[in-house]
Amino acid sequence: MRVAERLHSERTLVLVPSLPLLEQTVAVWKGERYGGRMVGLCSLKGSGQPGIACTTDPAELIRWTASPGRVTVFATYSSRGWSTWRRPTSRA
């Protein structure tokens, strides 16, 4: 969050390894009042939402992030097909 603030970032992508960590990260960013729209690229929907709108549909994500202003997208590695990034660094 601090890096995004220092860069005056209008678009920020926050990648985390798991849904529980996504929920925790969203809570911290909201608690710090980072500002702007926050959306999730993850499978959490309905009552399982981490306090932000979530989707797995790329077209919907584009609609949510297309307008001007600060937007932060929270996603898990696997929600973008990036789960292989974690494998080389995972410890058994």
Describe this structure in words.
By secondary structure, the protein is an alpha/beta fold. Helix content is about 35%, strand content about 20%. It contains 4 helices and 4 strands; from the N terminus they run αβαββαβα. The chain has helices at about 1-5, 20-30, 60-65, 85; strands at about 10-15, 35-40, 55, 70-75. Strands 1-4-2-3 form a 4-stranded parallel β-sheet. The N and C termini lie far apart (about 30 Å). Residues about 80-90 have low confidence and may be disordered.
Beta strand count: 4
Shape: globular
The major sheet is characterized as:
4 strands, parallel
Helix content: 25-40%
Question: What strand order characterises the main sheet?
Answer: 1-4-2-3
Number of helices: 4
**Estimated radius of gyration:** 13 Å
**Mean pLDDT across all residues, rounded?**
78
Poorly predicted runs are: 82-92
Q: SS-based structural class? A: alpha/beta
Written as H for each helix and E for each strand, in order along the chain, the element string is: HEHEEHEH
